[in-house]
Each structure stands twice: as C-alpha cells, then as structure tokens.
Amino acid sequence: MSTLVIGAGPAGLAVAAALRARGVEATVLERADDVAASWRGHYDRLHLHTTRRWSSLPGTVIPRRYGRWVARDDVVAYLEAYAADLDVRTGVAVERADADGAGWVLTTSAGELRARNVVVATGYNHTPVPPAWPGIETFTGEVLHASRYRNPAPFVGRDVLVVGVGNTGAELAVDLAEGGASRVRLAVRTPPHIVRRSNLGWPAQGTGILVRHLPVPLVDKIAGAVARVEVPDLSSYGLPRPTTGLYSRVQQGSVPVQDVGLIAAVQSGAVTPVAAVVGVDGPDVLLADGSRVSPDVLLAATGYRRGLEPLVGHLGVLDATGVPLTHGPRPARPGLYFTGYTNPISGMFRELRIDAERIARAVV
After folding, report:
1. DSSP 136
2. Where are the domains of the chain?
3. Quick one: pLDDT at residue 258?
4. Domain spanning 3-126+306-363, CATH architecture
C-alpha cells in the first residue's frame, strides 16, 4: 500500500481525502466499529466551538442546514458522509508501528500491514486521565470521568462537584445546573481565560486566526484588553482573572474557555467556583483553601493523554509528555507523519484541513 492512516476521526479522514484528491492510494484503519468514534461518545449538548464556515475538511463543506455552531450529532453525520467514498477499514486495532526498509510495517488485529507511508491520527483526546488525588479510593460517593458523561439526567437532584475548568468542565457544570442537579460546584486550580464565543457576530475563532502568528507578548496584551471589556470580573464569585497571558497559556497547552453559559451561571449562583481539590477523605473532598465539601458525585474533567506510547513510543518520536516531536508535513521519521495533536486557538478542524493538505503534498 502507498499510505496507511491510523484513525478514522476528522484528522485521519481529512488526510485520506486530501491524498485521494492527489491520486494517492490511502487506507484508513479504525479500531472502533464506526468512523468518528470519539465524536459519538461526546456529551449530548456539545457543539463545535468553531464556525461551520471555518470547520469543513478538504473537499466537502459542512452543510449550511447544520447551522453556524454544528451540533455533535451533525458532526457525526458529516463525518459519516465524508468517509463514504474513502477506503476505511473499521474494527482494526493498530498495536505497533515499525520501520521496515523503505517503508513501515504495522502490527494490527488483522495481521501485519505494510505501506510506504504511515499517518498517525488517533486523536488529541485519546486516553482519559483518571483522578489521582490522595484518598480517592475512600470516596463514598460516585466518581465519574468527564469522558463518560452524556447528559444531566442521572444527576437530577444530586450535589455534583465538577473538577477542572477547561472547556469540558465549564460546559458540563452549566449543563448540570440547567439540567436539575441540586447543587453544582466547580473546582478551579488555575483561573482560566474566558472568551465570548461570538461578539457582535464576530467569532472568537476569527480572532484566533488573525493573531496566531503574532508575538506572544503582543497577543497577551491585546487579549487582556479585550477581556476587560467583554468579560466581567468574577473574582467576587471565586473565579479571579488569570495572571498569565492568554497566548502564553496557549503555548503551555491550555486554550481559553469559550463562554457557553458559564459567566451567567456563576453570576446567578447556579454554579459555584471553589478551590482546587487536593485530596479525599471518605465522604469529604479536601480543597486547597482548607475547606471540605461532601458532594454526591465527583465529576472529573481531568483531561486526556495522547496514548501513543504503545504504538510509537519505541521510535523516539515523542516528547516527555507523550506528544509527537514533529507534526504535520514534516515527518517524524522518513514516511511517518502525525496530525491532530495540537489544540490551536484558530480551530481544530480548520488546522486539520490545512495539515491534511500539507501532508498530502509531502507524501506525493
């Protein structure tokens, strides 16, 4: 085979489509039984935080009927239709990649497969990071990672502590408050940068596209000025403004939180920010300010790992955190490419499209 692509999410499908447009044979291998497996498992209320206009993958626009902010189910439908004309083999788990002469050999659940090029696109949010606070095993309530959350129905009338104030944790806290939880608290370790998803019709993504190549200190200064105008000071509610600049934080791997109801929920008291979790003692959760709370549920929005170590960890192509050292059209090793392992402020789907087209040019 010319090229094997590992992963049938948006990143892998985008590469396969870009290669096909250039006349290059490409087969996509997907361990799940369907394409877009990660998107199928996301929580019900999720929408793209980027606009439909700037989120289409190579060769096929997202239908206008899906609206400006595309819902999870519509993203899945788009990816299903997108994959229909591609060579996708589902139910094939890729366990290891090894160099083999002028190409690569993949050890898979379907046997060994060989190709001149391999593109790894298994997803940014691949392996959930479970909570590891001291004493977590003693908690007498329910512990749930955010990857298993679907909707607020199971939590009606219950006291929930959401841990983590990235985009997922912030949105799940709002979803729970709106969906009937008796109490919702949001544990915050590092105050996030909050941005309006859209202001006067201009999406935050558009600003991200415009500033992403500017110097970091300049973007930090601009973002700080904009935030003081657009975002109210929530310090009195327990959510102070961050002390690190927005783009400096992005360079460290933390994108801003897009407001899809968090500001209003905090101001109304529907969601109460509290200090970071430092431990658990039976029914009590210990917070960094010395206080204790006793929720019925600990909902841990504690993030994900890339999970690439079994596949390529032996090749010396990952950094100390498990992230690929190179990305996009520059191969990590001859014929080995990675895509989808960054979280850009200009929009994930947009960058996947750009990466796919660049990788296709490099492969050709």
Report:
1. G
2. 3-126+306-363, 129-300
3. 94
4. 3-Layer(bba) Sandwich (3.50)
Q: Both tokens of residue 248?
A: 């400096």
Element housing 338 (H / E) = strand 336-338
Cα 327–Cα 189–Cα 44 angle in degrees, nearest 5: 65
Question: Which regions in the chain score pLDDT beneath 70?
Answer: none
Who contacts 263 (Cβ-Cβ below 8 Å, separation ≥6)?
Answer: 194, 231, 232, 234
DSSP assignment letter at 235: G
Which tokens sit at 56?
């289409």
Q: What is the pLDDT of residue 344?
A: 87
Which sign, positive or negative, has the C-alpha torsion 17, 127, 305, 1? negative
DSSP 47: B
3-state secondary structure at position 266: helix
**Domain 3-126+306-363 identical in fold to domain 129-300:** yes
- Amino acid at the residue 100: D
Domain range 129-300, CATH architecture: 3-Layer(bba) Sandwich (3.50)
Q: pTM for the whole thing?
A: 0.92
CA–CA distance, 109 with 308 (Å, rounded to integer): 17
Polymer length of the chain: 364
